[in-house]
């Protein structure tokens, strides 16, 4: 009887092994996310007549731009093998401080600087705790998320801070060749970030740390510094996102960084081919993922699928991609 | 002597691209220990994995007690009385000895673990092994030797008639080793068949009756050990390749000091380490396992923190004190554990080779210069004779020898004045070992200073021009390059007995 048990376990094991080999052996799977995006787009074009209307497309891309920027920050952290759950709440807190300064008659430049600085400070705290105090990224950034959203509500009394400054709107939202600036900023940042991770010292160190931190250290990589910087960078991207989102919404509030946003960021990264296990992925991929996630939300909206059903669908998509990620990880 | 209790006949196994076993025959009698010997890649593990049910052979048959049996899973192996004592002990440190031993088959009563029965059967096995800890001891408080005993206890639980020991002594002290041998002798008198895999030839003469030698996946010889000498076995293992001969030794008197370590301390690990390393010198750091050799190396390059002490490096204009974290700019260290603390396994050969030298590859725009990265990697792949299909090949797909050369190549790219090689040839076959040693010689001839750590005395003999002997975290002796094998062995063993 024991032999029978053994062989059935073996069969299940070998089936999974074969699936794994198939996934790792075929380069086709590297472009799977893009392929799925194309299929989804075709389906949408068939079922939603207005979907490819240029206004809707521009709209989707503008929506995706803030998610995309945050996903770039998350990607940098995830490549190093960490995670930053505090991005949306830090983004909201940054936006609130910046908007308050603007509301009280401060200059646009200083407001933007405040937003970036708040993000960078929060990121530095995360980075210090993870890199030097060797704390677990999940716990540290979860705590930072709670702190930042608590502070955001405390400072604003849950009332949103209005941003009424035409010059600010113009500066951030104006179109260049019919393309709104947020999209351009996202694309440029994605390109710069991709160049940085692919071709600079920091980038190569980043992947090395994500692949094997001990081996990286033994090869002379300043691993603590690299890990610290990843959180500073994600904080900075949270600040940059705060600038764009507060201009787009015309206000800043604690609600900007609600719980759903962090899920969207992680989904964007994972769908875009960034590995939860570290060492794999690119910012450009994460931006593609952000567009994909936004398209799904947007189209479900247009198909009048309820918000809650939408959450279920998103959850399923994420599990599918994480399953794929762990298959790829031999 | 009658018929063999275990017989493997004409076993062949092919992996994609490699014929791992070619019609191998192996036999063992009840109540005796058979040594299974061979260089790395000779097929020992493959053969034992076939016997243990982890692999299926393509051809061949297995007979136990004269009956042909089919072993198609580890469970089937257990059912046929075969137990495996693994080299790398996979244990759950926070659980007790009894729990670890029973982890795959807890005795239950009405679905609840029967703690009493579990501890009783554990106590019985532990008494048999002469262990003094109780079944409810947590693994984490046990020494390596005691853990090895737990591993054996786990194997004994199924009352096996065949026990495979895979390198059981590699992490044991001499006292623990003696205890292990006593246990093996007892098992033999109880009629158990022992298959003993090891690299240490002195052990097999001590504990085994017969030997089977594999080379390149085939049985190349064997027989009663009472009729064989060490030289015979080495000859069977490596074929007609000449053994390493000792290199010419130079005087170290006039050469300048490139690394000077003074009073290095780390509480409970290393104590008062002081020495100098000269240009063009190969200095051997010698001592038994656990004497603190690796810890000294790690402290010097800043991988582990130090409490106090000074490290000075000749950076071109005389000796300057440096902070440990900076040391890696002048010292290339090949770590002993290349898979976990050396290679970036999923990354390419090229990226693995450039990782230590990225600062030297930056272009004007602070970007990594792809062309120079490729050129340098190509250069060192050729120089070290690394066999790869392309520079983009992931390192994890290379053989052990080629992987090790990639690690060495990484530091050659940086071209530092000092190298530390911690077990540079561990796990490599004879050919790759010789190549790595040749590279070490070339480095020293080229003016680099090399600190070598090795557990293999032959390697130490072949490489060292001078030896520092370590024990319990301290340097206790210095020996000249002309020391004999006995002197080196004596120094390490004597140091360990002093206390």
Give a verbal description of the structure.
The complex is a heterodimer of chains A (330) and B (499). By secondary structure, chain A is an all-alpha fold. Chain A is built from 14 helices and four strands. Chain A has a domain of 207 residues. Chain A is 77% helix and 2% strand. In chain A, a hairpin with a 2-residue loop joins strand 2 and strand 3. In chain B, strand 13 and strand 14 form a beta hairpin. Chain B has two domains: 233 residues, P-loop containing nucleotide triphosphate hydrolases (Rossmann fold); 242 residues, P-loop containing nucleotide triphosphate hydrolases (Rossmann fold, 3-Layer(aba) Sandwich), CATH 3.40.50.300. Chain B is of the alpha/beta class and 499 residues long. The two termini of chain B are 47 Å apart. About 1% of the residues of chain B have low confidence. The interface between A and B is medium-sized, with 27 and 34 residues.
The helix fraction of chain B, in percent, is: 25-40%
Which structural class matches the secondary elements of chain B?
A: alpha/beta
Strand order of the largest sheet of chain A: 1-4
Query: Which regions of chain B contain 5 or more consecutive residues with pLDDT less than 50?
Result: 241-246
Major sheet of chain B: 6 strands, mixed
- Biggest sheet overview of chain A: 2 strands, antiparallel
Shape of chain A: globular
Looking at the overall shape, the CATH architecture of the largest domain in chain B is 3-Layer(aba) Sandwich
CATH-level-4 superfamily name of the largest domain in chain B: P-loop containing nucleotide triphosphate hydrolases
End-to-end span of chain B in angstroms? 47 Å
Summarize the structure.
The complex is a heterodimer of chains A (330) and B (499). By secondary structure, chain A is mainly alpha-helical.
